[in-house]
């Protein structure tokens, strides 16, 4: 998960603030209302499941761009509405592609409705009057390998953190897979990362409109996990979608279009379901490409060239990131070949870091956790520190009886999110530690967003030996600080390759 403070200029004074904060159950059934340039939005008020004495105003499913967008085209301005917009329910997710049935089982449960009509966002607002200048805003970009995911997932319900931290939380949808990242050469390079353009459109919408919901447009923090963390950073490795696009066009019979029409025109007219069927059958992935406009170059390079925004950063990983992702990986040998290219000595050195009696799955999981998460995050954090950015780092290492999707998943990829959002499962297995840890993490995220210069409540990287915050339940569940070497010692095997390959 990565969070970065984004300073947005206060440019949009004309958005009118009108928050109706009347509590529910007062006999008055008026609903929370906001007046935007596009029209009136009417939300709903809801009690928190966890703490029923707290309520939150929810504005769900507001269009931040014209929706549905034109397929394979950049997002356009939303069209104003005349009668009040009913923001009391969630709108569909963008179309999702699941690269494996295991991921579908974990991340599509229950399956949300899906549509190309999906460019909506959700806003969660504390019912109390905003402070002078407005509430701090947390802007969530969901993960899902750029293939799947949606702002509407129950895990990302912003109510708890909004109410407990008195912040405004925004969750968004953006186009994923081929709908978000088409590989057609008929599209100009800098207009192919549609999913990233959607995210920016949503952020610009927040800048322009959040005051009407009590938010402070000059105090916005973007935060995200996995592909969403990458998006917050938006300086990515080289990828190409053109090969997979060719497979898609061939399978759709769009590779030899009629005179006067392009392959792109042809694919743009096919029913979405037919496209998704081919993604499934052929295992086609579409991800952000480097265009040096919406994405790229590498973060380290961007930081060196001072092209990255110089903002405070909160960054961290989980102890067992690889556990549920290992099944998507090739053999450990191939993984190491990709990391170390032709450098056999370094590859063998890394191989020696692990016991020889691990199962293939365990080894894959460890390589992925160490290389792709722990050590790449460490390198990213150090690169930002070296250009005098304030960075705070954490390490999440807690698992609970009621949050294990597969046996031995541990602190798996995404398992910290329900604690940050306060949406962890509540059943007869929920532990007291789970709620304490959730509280501590919510407070850290809230404090970082409110005062990014002073941070989330532990030592800034480089300011103390113990500058790594561990969120686990070994102590009193408020976290504890330690030396980053405790988790980074394995990076002696990977640092050089990470430098050489770029990050
Ligand atoms: C992006 O910029 C890097 C240098 O910073 C360059 O090597 C690369 O070719 C550029 N890519 C594109 C697509 O412009
Ligand atoms: C890897 O290959 C490159 C050229 O492709 C070569 O310059 C380099 O020396 C090789 N490294 C090793 C460790 O063999
Ligand atoms: C694997 O080997 C280590 C020693 O390297 C040993 O402590 C451990 O018990 C072994 N595990 C299994 C499952 O055999
Ligand atoms: C993470 O938790 C596991 C299991 O409790 C433990 O073995 C490991 O030492 C912990 N890691 C850190 C860095 O605390
Ligand atoms: C917990 O709840 C489940 C049903 O949700 C039930 O099957 C189980 O017996 C319960 N366990 C305890 C210890 O109450
Ligand atoms: C938890 O421990 C920290 C120090 O490790 C201490 O500052 C804090 O007050 C403790 N919190 C509780 C609730 O005991």
Q: How many strands, what sense, and barrel or not for the largest sheet? A: 11 strands, mixed
Outline the low-pLDDT stretches. Answer: 5-28
CATH architecture annotation of the largest domain? 3-Layer(aba) Sandwich
Mean of pLDDT = 92
Structural domains: how many: 3
Alpha-beta content class? alpha/beta
Write the H/E string, N to C: EEEEEEHEEHEHHEHHHHHEHHHEHHEEHH
Please write the CATH class name of the largest domain: Alpha Beta
How far is the first residue's CA from the last residue's CA?
16 Å
- Rg, please? 23 Å
Q: What is the CATH T-level topology of the largest domain?
A: Rossmann fold
H/I helix tally: 16
Report the sheet-strand fraction: 5-15%
Largest sheet, spatial ordering of strands: 4-5-7-9-8-10-1-11-12-13-14
Organism: Clonostachys chloroleuca
GO molecular function, one term: carboxylic ester hydrolase activity
Family: Belongs to the type-B carboxylesterase/lipase family.
Protein name: Carboxylic ester hydrolase
